[in-house]
Known about the structure:
This protein has 107 residues and is mostly beta strands. The protein contains no helices and 9 strands.
Amino acid sequence: MHNIFTNLPPCPTHGEAFETLLSHHHITVERIVSASFNHGRWMEQEQDEWVLLLQGEATLNVAGDVMALQCGDYLFLKARTPHRVINTSAQALWLAMHITSCKHLPA
């Protein structure tokens, strides 16, 4: 058993620190600690992502829609959705689940 709030990676001086908590079949779960920053880079990931803000505040731009997230807010980002973190509070803590699509083999 583990606790999401214990043994956090050190808060980076800028950007984010990523820690993989689980990688199983087509799912990867990460714990992310963010430094207080502005204007992250645009991303378009190949996998779907579900993200939950566990601590702190953040503002995201998801395909042109600006969203202010508070502790407890979560959202689902379909693969290849352009998004970026506009800003975060210091030591924002995230839980992210990356889901790789399953390609079925021919029968």
